[in-house]
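Worked example

This section walks through a single chain of length 251. The input is the sequence exactly as stored; nothing has been trimmed or padded.
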Amino acid sequence: MDDTQLLRYSRHILLDEIGIEGQQKLLASHALVIGAGGLGSPVALYLGTAGVGRITIVDHDTVDLTNLQRQIAHNLARVGTPKATSAQASIAAINPDVQVTPLIERADASRLDALVRQADVVLDCSDNFKTRHAVNAACVKHKKPLVSGAAIGFDGQISVYDTRRADAPCYACIFPPEATFEEVQCSTMGVFAPLVGIIGTMQAAEALKLLIGIGSPLAGRLQMLDARSMEWNEVRMQRQPQCAVCSKLRA
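Given that input, the structure is written out below as tokens.
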């Protein structure tokens, strides 16, 4: 690190758990962010400010006026522009040293296979089960830690799915692909603006912990927030031996 970086990251370096070695790990890391909306906005900004060296942001959508109620990586001047490039610009305005690659495309299974393989950590900030399952399958295949968040209405949830750990479940262990879940969108259900900030910030924190190798990640633990009462509930989760996605990996 040069003198400017030592100054920029001084508050991290002062932490015994991070220090210069931990910050250098972040600078050498590559994070893949799926989605640059409500969750992806704080994720991208905090990964960028923390000094994650490379960030790939995947989002096919453009900034809309209705997004600005909660998607803090975007602004009024960027309405109509791709969210991925808007997030890139917001990171550059804070930390121009971070290498951000915006990909304006849908994260389908074949593309994810290549993208996940190149990443050190994956953050799922998408809003539909199809994408979440595709991201999970790629993470299981390439043994990459997945930080998954979701938020709708006043309810949010977050967990880490890390199949490098023998006891940890994958996303499909908890939400089987063959099961039927009601698909809800914030465009019809609404979403409390700060909720995505809370969950997204926690996703960034879990990713940074994984990259540095500190603390206890949320692997095997699903945390759920009711923002009406600001009450958290935690469910302990176990891997499923018959899981259609990760059982072959563990065989």
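What to look for: Residues 124 and 160 are 10 Å apart (CA to CA).
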